[in-house]
Amino acid sequence: MTEQDQTELAGPTSPVPPPTAASESAEQPRPRDPWDYPRHWIADVLASDGGVVHLRPIVPDDADRVVRFHGGLSERTRYMRYFGPTPTLPPRELARMTTVDYQKRVALVAVLGGEIIAIGVYEGLGFDGKPESAEVAFVVADDHQGRGLGPILLEHLAGAAAENGFTRFEAEVLSENPNMVAVFRDAGYQLSRNFDGSTVHVEFLIDPTEALLSVRNARERASEARSVANLLRPSSVAVIGASTDPKKVGNTLLANIIAGGFTGPVFPVNGPGPDTQSESEQGTSATGHGRRSPGHRHIRPRPPSVRGIRAYPTVRDVPDPVDLAVVAVPAAVVDDVLDDCLVKGVRTLVVVSSGFGESGAAGLESERRLVEQAREHGMRLVGPNALGVANNSASIALNATLAPRIPAAGRVGFFCQSGALGIAILDTAARRQIGLSTFVSAGNRADVSGNDLLQYWDTDTDTDVVLLYLESFGNPRKFSRIARRVSRSKPIVAVKSGKGAMTAARAERSSAASLDDRIAQMVLEQAGVIQVHSISELFDCATLFAYQPLPRGPRTRIIGNSSVLGSLAADTARGGGLEVTDTIDLGAGASEDEFEAAVTDAMRDPAVDAVIVVFVPPVAVDADWHARALMAAANTPDADGPKPIVTTFLAVEGIPPGLMKPGGNGLPECGSIPSYGSPERAATALVRAWQYARWRQRPEPEIHRPDGTDPEGARMYVREVMDRHDRDDGGEPTDTLGPVESATLLRAYGIEVVPFAEVSTMHEAAGAAERFGFPVAVKATSPVWRGRLDREGARLDLPDATAVITAFSELSQLTGDDLLHVQKMAPKGIGTTIRVRDDRSFGSLISFGLSGRTFDLLGDHGYRAIPLTPLDAEELLDEPRSAPLLGGYAGEPPVDRSALTDLLMRISTLVDDIPEVREVLCDPILASPDGAAVLNAVIRVGPVPTRADTGPRRLA
């Protein structure tokens, strides 16, 4: 075995017969057919250098590829893997390697450009009865060692082995191959090693411990950040589709790259052949006959140069390396471009071409193929239908966009999807003097997404503030996980559009189509993201975050020369949670010295955390004196550190010249005072800053696992139930567990449902009541009778067997239910409900509220993304508007909050541990001063959603 590094992998698809539908679920017994492998094991992943590699199970048709792969290995690599020279693979060994059963023996191959570049395999040891341990081995092509493929193969093999019931990996490693042992150790596994002369025997459990997940996330973070760095920090750029016609997209792109001063070489690519410009680019013909007819093509010679730079027929003809290719050719010829880029070794593509997902169902299918082919070629893709990318770093100076105006260099990173909106955003940023570090317009966001950019900006020293315009979340759970980490050091301000996907064709897979804005706000706030409702408010916040410090607390002083404007600012500030300590009206005739003295006093006052200065001159006079007064006062030293100050200087938006603290390049820098068009907007921006500062002051979330949980037993129980249900009902993709099954699963996580029994006769009902002890309840089981306001579906507080028999008879006749429940009476309390469900916008969400149809109708629930921290659970209890009822309303005793938070944490942990659990409903839960009693539970299970942020790391 050999491998020289520890990082991530990904790669392209080679032609193999498609697996059958029977392999869709990893829980089904799989046939031994050599092509019938679990489809969800296929993965595109990122190597440590940011390149994509395709991972899939091996099939018999890979025999020739394996031979070529083995023949390309160095003698030392073959020796390390096979403990001997092994110049060739015997036919019997080759057949054994390529024909596996995907249970006891599993082999995964990493593929790039149709060729195998790495192989990993595990084989069960002692497969009598329940499997436990398997031997693992892998080998990586010499040219691809150092890219982190070994740890990725190990991660995905461990995932497959765990699905098949294995709990441990073992490996034999030559003593002279310490790198191999390092791969296991650095992957986060706790190793047990035994030395035996020339070999080392290694064993480790493959359960996903917190340490292991931390290592996986760190590796994912580094590789995704590197892939974006390949995009935003290229050493050379090719413009494919460059044109001499200034009306065409390729010409505009090339012109912007040149005008922006890109520091590396630029290569126009515009080969001879058909004029394949799209109709939208062709415009009106010079002859005056209007637009060319559809399908019209003519042959034109390749221009020797475009904008004075030598042009090339294809990117493969460029004599120097090409890092980034900006593609502006029609959709129909993009395939040829991808082939050329593979040969050339291009790392990243920006496709501005339209005609893909935004054009309808056929275009969406073309877009899917584009992503598959780009990844097959080892490349990442921005677009299609993108506006482009920009990096204002002086060492890069890249403007590969179609935007006519790019803001100057600054400390703000921006991501959006819509190209048209991107142009407006860039223009607004420039007018407000908000400098950008980097900008990405992802268009249809088929590959590179906001998650990737967050990973990059997290470690980018040129970016202090992150702005997002989001239309949907590709992987909501992952977004929440990344945003929580990034927000700890850099503010993330987001506009979340709730109006649906960009096109009707994409609405099927767009999470925004069913977005509830209130839920979005709760979940974004949980991750520390500042959600705003408009582009204007986005830049209001960005201006403050870019140039002013965060407030230390909510205490705010308002100073101005208009009592009316001061009152507007105060009302907005209070409504957003700020404490307005003073509102000082200096009067319309206040002098420069009076303004400076008032603001200076506020900056020195330890009881003031932030200052709003409202200024509108009573007549059209020179107001430079006001700017001088503000800037002088703003520089007042304070023992507790700087304070934020905002103003409404002449209703100017952005940084007026008089309030600018110029940096070395003449642009605003930290200490400049932002101005707003109205006092409400100034106060709102400060409210957002305080909300974010308060979130950052919260302690770092601690890993907390409730006591008394049995995740392995619960996981096996879920699989057994799913297998049993599949056999019984023909294999439905999801299924609802019965009350007894649901209660059994909850018990594995320390959650006890109040004892109940399912009964079908009066005698069974009476017997169950005797066992539980009186009083008891008899309840209907059909959904139409559960939870009714008139409680006609239940008979409560039954004191003896006679009452139970009577209740059973009445309910059977009334409801028609063949099966009723007899349940021990729980202590009186307030009915509450906890529910976990799949949300198309945010993945698994947990909600809390009071129980009953009235509260459901009013939508009075709080929401959080899973997994919860203890602080999340505490805050979730207070989220519903009816939450005061739990705290001792109208003289009632308060309920036991700790019991409810513990219940929330246990349910969150259950769903986090076992993603096959798709929905949990505990309703009602009677909360009382003595605890929380779960009366009823319903759990739905099914295959893991493909976008869930669980299991081995992979690209969406």
UniProtKB/TrEMBL annotation:
Matches recorded under CDD domains: NAT_SF
Residue stretches in coiled coil: none
Keywords annotated in UniProt: ATP-binding, Nucleotide-binding, Transferase
SUPFAM superfamilies xrefs: Acyl-CoA N-acyltransferases (Nat) (SSF55729), Glutathione synthetase ATP-binding domain-like (SSF56059), NAD(P)-binding Rossmann-fold domains (SSF51735), Succinyl-CoA synthetase domains (SSF52210)
Extent of Basic residues compositional bias: 289-301
Bias kind Polar residues: ranges: 275-287
Residue span of region Disordered: 1-34, 268-308
Residues covered by the ATP-grasp domain: 743-781
Alphabetical list of InterPro entries matching this protein: Acyl_CoA_acyltransferase, ATP-grasp, ATP_grasp_subdomain_1, CoA-bd, GNAT_dom, NAD(P)-bd_dom_sf, Succ_CoA_lig_flav_dom, Succinyl-CoA_synth-like
Tree of life domain: Bacteria
Entry GO MF terms: acyltransferase activity, transferring groups other than amino-acyl groups; ATP binding; metal ion binding
Protein name: GNAT family N-acetyltransferase
Species whose genome carries this gene: Gordonia mangrovi
